[in-house]
Specification:
Keywords: DNA-binding, Phosphoprotein, Transcription, Transcription regulation. InterPro entries: CheY-like_superfamily, NreC/VraR/RcsB-like_REC, Sig_transdc_resp-reg_C-effctor, Sig_transdc_resp-reg_receiver, Tscrpt_reg_LuxR_C, WalR-like. The chain has 213 residues and is an alpha/beta fold. The chain folds into two domains: 136 residues, 3-Layer(aba) Sandwich (Rossmann fold), CATH 3.40.50; 66 residues, Winged helix-like DNA-binding domain superfamily/Winged helix DNA-binding domain (Arc Repressor Mutant, subunit A), CATH 1.10.10. The protein is 50% helix and 13% strand. A five-stranded parallel sheet has the order 2-1-3-4-5, with helices on both faces. Helix 2 runs parallel beside helix 3 and helix 7 packs across helix 9. The longest helix is centred in the C-terminal third of the chain and has 15 residues.
Length: 213
């Protein structure tokens, strides 16, 4: 059973998500909150598997709440929700530890599959949306970074492809590698770079300048 907490300041949005997510027996909504501060408290108390977090809320917004949850409640996966696929706050949410993002107009079936994907430890990084998010945040690119110096050329190539949101199978096809080899490279990248998950690799690739517009 995958336990879910909903954090959104609109009651109708929470009600709609709850109705969609309780359609299947393996998903259950165990808690809700109308703002980020309350969301953090609910997550601390209930320790769900997945949190669906609105990125724009009054008071403590979704980015700040995500940072607190990922720092204070290990193992909980946060997915940010937005109505804008170019919202630069989505990149801030990834930097804060979110495992990906979803648009609020996602269809019911893909929504439920997305929750299962995140609960299984994967990231939600659709290539088209990921590229737009990174482009929207590009004006905030930091200065030179040396974290990639420890990587081999092939590891850099794999990281660059992962950072576009491609799956292991897609990276394998682009780089003419087997999916198993790509999985090995991704595991190595996570260990070498100290990233939480694939979403963390996207953030790092952006911050180091490996990925650009």
């Amino acid at each position: 059973m995958i336990r879910i907490v909903l954090v959104d300041d609109q009651e109708l949005v929470r009600a709609g998500l709850r109705a969609l997510l309780t359609h299947d027996d393996d998903l259950v909504v165990v808690g809700e909150a109308a703002d980020g501060a309350a969301g953090v408290e609910v997550v601390r108390r209930l320790r769900p598997d997945v949190v669906l977090m609105d990125v724009r809320m009054p008071g403590v917004d979704g980015v700040a709440a995500t940072a607190r949850i990922t720092a204070e409640v290990p193992g909980v996966r946060v997915v940010v929700l937005t109505t804008f696929d170019t919202d630069e706050h989505l990149f801030d949410a990834l930097r804060a530890g979110a495992s990906g993002f979803l648009l609020k107009d996602i269809r019911p079936g893909p929504l439920r599959e997305a929750v299962r994907t995140v609960a299984a430890g994967e990231a939600l990084l659709a290539p088209a949306v990921t590229r737009r998010v990174i482009a929207a945040a590009a004006v905030h690119r930091p200065g030179p970074d040396t974290r990639l110096d420890r990587l081999t050329e092939r590891e850099r190539e794999v990281l660059a492809e992962v950072a576009t949101g491609r799956s292991n199978d897609e990276v394998a096809a682009v780089l003419f590698l087997s999916p198993a080899t790509v999985r090995t490279y991704v595991s190595r990248l996570l260990a070498k770079l100290g990233a939480r998950d694939r979403a963390g690799l996207v953030v790092l690739a952006y911050e180091t300048g490996l990925v650009s517009r």
